[in-house]
Amino acid sequence: MAISKKTIRDIDVNGKRVLMRVDFNVPLKDGVIQDDTRILAALPSIKYVLEKGCQSLVLMSHVGDPKKDIKKAREKAEKDGKPFDEKKFSDGKHKMAPIAAYLAKLLGKEVKLAPSCMGPETEAMVKSLPQGGICILENTRFHKEETSKDEAEREVLAKVLASYGDVYVNDAFGTAHRAHASTETVAHYLPAVAGFLMEKELEFLQEKIVKNPIKPFVAIIGGAKVSSKIAVLESLLGKVDKIIIGGGMAYTFLKAKGFGVGKSLIEDDMLDTARTVLAKAAEKKVEILLPVDHIVTQEFAAEAASKATTSEAIEDGWMGMDIGPKSIEKFKAALVGAKTVFWNGPMGVFEFAKFSEGTKVIANTLATLVGATTVIGGGDSVSAVNKAGVASKMSHISTGGGASLELVEGKELPGVKALNNK
Fold first, then answer.
1. C-alpha torsion sign, points 116, 117, 118, 122
2. Which among 225, 263, 326, 387 is annotated as catalytic?
3. How many CB atoms lie within 10 A of CB 9?
4. Catalytic residue flag (residue 258)
5. Residue 127 pLDDT > 70, yes or no?
6. What is the mean pLDDT of residues 139-150?
7. Torsion on CA atoms 300, 303, 305, 306, rounded to nearest 10
8. Which one of 379, 400, 401, 415 is the catalytic residue?
9. Residue 379 catalytic?
10. Is the pLDDT of residue 90 over 70?
11. Sign, Cα dihedral of 271, 352, 388, 332
């Protein structure tokens, strides 16, 4: 199913300088990459432009959010009454060096690291790249212009970035929902196309989930809060046959239906919203499936003593940590015969092994569905299918949690909108 935007297949990159936005926002610990999924996802586009004879390739990405992290660390130090040394805290953090070295190993060729996104040293490095040479710019978020809400400010950085290429390729779906200098503004100054990863994300999320889902269509929505998923739920009501709701948000729905939820996580200010969703679902003949039993504890801890409830209700003093055995069977049965499944959010506190069973079973069930399109909408659900060892059995695993949700909500993503139409 073709997307409406031009891709790198639609342009000739031979002899051209290619500027490519990738999403190398990977977890780093002491300078070591903890998960290379996003780097591997960008390799097809990178290898393609090199094989097609590009003059040079300049890559750009952010890693982490320096401004936010510094603010958080400073506030913590102040709260603890300790001095805060910004230079010491920032040293080595959010830097692209380990990513450049890792990419060089994967490609088997040198990947130069520019000291910045702007400045004479970076410009000289980009200009001196040999035929087929690669350079990666330092973290785009070291520049305030990257994330500025003022378009004129973003243009300052975008114009410099545009000077490094003849064509712009956006392969960073995970940041496509942000109107940043390197994701959206730069596309105003160069021919702008989608990379292979961006193309695949749009094919599955926009075409196969939003526009043309094959029925029966089942959505599985979990996670902690109704407030963060309400727009997705409302959008899906017009498309799906069933919605399975799990995780912390299920307790808000159960309380809205009059069940006791003990001291489980709930959002009291979302109770009316939950009732509205249930009423709209009934009106549209969409089946909403909520847990009918739970694994509960008296404290939020990895090894807390637990038990299964016998019904939807949770007694005072106890909190839900996972869906129970009856709910697991109910949810599994609801997935039988599904032709399209969209999953975003775990069924319980799956980061604690003891409370990961519900999430694990959902992952394994999706892996066994025959002839179904199974789309994992980023975030914790990706970790869940990876932990269950069934990632290769999913039709598509999105690299962008926030971007995938906004797309399914029906929003137009700035980074996608800015690309050239076919």
1. positive
2. 225
3. 11
4. no
5. yes
6. 95
7. 70
8. 379
9. yes
10. no
11. negative
Q: What is the mean pLDDT of residues 367-392?
A: 90
pLDDT, average across residues 177-201: 97
pLDDT tier, 237 (very low <50, low <70, confident <90, very high otherwise):
very high
pLDDT score of 91 more than 70? no
Any catalytic annotation for residue 38? yes
Share of the chain above pLDDT 70, in %: 99
Domains and CATH numbers, the chain: 8-197 (3.40.50.1260), 204-408 (3.40.50.1260)
Catalytic option among 17, 38, 95, 229: 38
State the catalytic residue, choosing from 64, 132, 260, 402.
402
For the ranges 63-72, 207-216, 329-338, the lowest mean pLDDT is seen at 63-72
In the block, tokens 């399975």 appear at: 244
Cα dist from 59 to 32, 114, 169, 189, whole Å: 20, 10, 10, 17
